[in-house]
Amino acid sequence: MLLVLPSPWLRGVFVGICLLAVSTGQVKTRPEQIHVSLSGSSSELVLTWSTFNATDSVVEYGTTSLNLRATGGSSLFVDGGSLHRPQYIHRVSLTGLQAGQRYMYHVGSAVAWSDLFFFTALRSDASWSPRVALFGDMGNENAQSLPRLQSEAQQGMYDAVLHVGDFAYDMNTDDGLVGDEFMRQIEAVAAYVPYMTCVGNHENAYNFSHYKARFSMPGDDGANMFYSFDLGPAHFISLSTEYYFFLEYGMQQIRTQYEWLQRDLEMANQNRAERPWIVTFGHRPMYCSNDNSDDCTHRQSITRVGVPYLHLYGLEKLFYDSGVDLELWAHEHSYERFWPVYNEETRNGSTASPYTNPRGPVHIVTGSAGCREGRASFRNESLPFSAFRSNEYGYTRINIFNSSHLYLEQVSDDQGGKVIDHMWIVKDTHGAYP
Questions:
Q1: How many angstroms from the chain centroid is the CA of residue 298?
Q2: What is the pLDDT of residues 233-260, one digit of tens each?
Q3: pLDDT for residue 418 is more than 90
Q4: How many other C-beta atoms are found inside a 10 Å radius of the C-beta of residue 338?
Q5: Under DSSP, is residue 342 helix (H, G, I), strand (E, B) or coil?
Q6: For residues 304, 310, 313 and 318, what is the CA-based torsion angle, rounded to 10 degrees?
Q7: Residue of 419, 367, 379, 291 whose CA lies nearest to 138
Q8: pLDDT digits over 289-332, tens only?
């Protein structure tokens, strides 16, 4: 049917309404919250983004021009708040990437494209030295470390970023608007460097639905809640400590993750000739000396010994028996480095060189990236196996040089990027501790 408008005035109104509708549609279909993550293969990356209307899911990319094209799909995510705000979360995998090659890209569809970003494809072999930034507990408000991280990521200082739980404070707040704004904020890092995550307590709303929906981590077992990946000479394992604290979502999830960890650690140990380092990251620490009543301040911390009273599925013995080298945590809004430790006993390699051939895993707590809850103070007396602690805002860097040497340092954003702590872990062999 042909619509006839009898007067120029009516025709002008109709055209104006059509233009307004198109404009509104463009705003809702423009991609945002773009982030990169590793897939099961180092030659493959996953790009994830959001729109607020349904669109195609397309990435155009290339080394000198946007001459390559990949497509994927989207899923509808509805926030659990009173407004039930919907958004479409898009995922596209890029395969066959050339190691070391820098690619430019944009994401979107025929109705709207994002700005232009870039990334560098990673090597899949073990004979290189990955550089990683890590932190936890970064919020939408007071994300003090983010500008420095943004600058360093875009300068190519990192091959990956680990966000060790607690995002936005909180992603579900204001019917998900805070989560949307936070994902826009971290785009300045996450659109350029693989942004690898683990879940924290601040993601618990609606059974962690925002965390599960917004990120795209490797593997199909845990819906982003637990997974692993290889990076250079290291095998990284991300896990959920939150399963132990939100039992209203069921006990089976603890067992499922624990059995998966057993299998993954067994395979990682079989592959130690190629990937000798095993590094875990989870949100709530086993140990801390902060001045509060958090789980890590208790001698029988749940993360360490397992389900209360039953002491089932404790992680410390599993990680010790599996020869895990480095355990990364957050939750406390501070930084704390420990001597090698197992079962509350210092397990230094020697008095002169505690981190050379240590007889237990090394624990790092790094949750001081900045959020609205501020800093965490420490007790006057530290634990006997606590080596260094600071509540200055900042983040941690790791450089895994080779099969025997791993370097770690803490950056203070309060002091303009000054390195306030550092250490080397040196190992002649990897595996079960003596």
A1: 26
A2: 999 999 999 999 999 999 999 999 999 9
A3: yes
A4: 25
A5: strand
A6: 60
A7: 367
A8: 999 999 999 999 999 999 988 889 999 999 999 999 999 999 99
Above 90 in pLDDT, residue 19?
no
CB < 8 Å & 24+ apart, contacts of 145-151: 145/368, 145/369, 145/370, 145/393, 145/394, 145/395, 145/411, 145/413, 146/185, 146/186, 146/188, 146/189, 146/369, 146/370, 148/411, 148/413, 148/417, 149/189, 149/395, 150/188, 150/189
The residue whose two tokens read 């190691």 is 99
Distances (CA, A) of 428 to 342, 356, 405: 20, 8, 9
Is the model's pLDDT at 36 over the cut of 50? yes
Q: How many residues does the chain have?
A: 434
CB 369 within 8 A of CB 135: yes
DSSP labels for 17-82? HHHHHHHHHHHHHS-EEEEEEE-SSTT-EEEEEEESS----EEEEESSSS-EEEE-EEEEEE-SST
SS (H, E, C) 362-426: EEEEECCCECCCCCCCECCCCCCCEEEEECCCEEEEEEECCCCEEEEEEEECCCCCEEEEEEEEE
Q: What is the DSSP letter of 9?
A: H
Of residues 5 and 51, more confidence is placed in 51
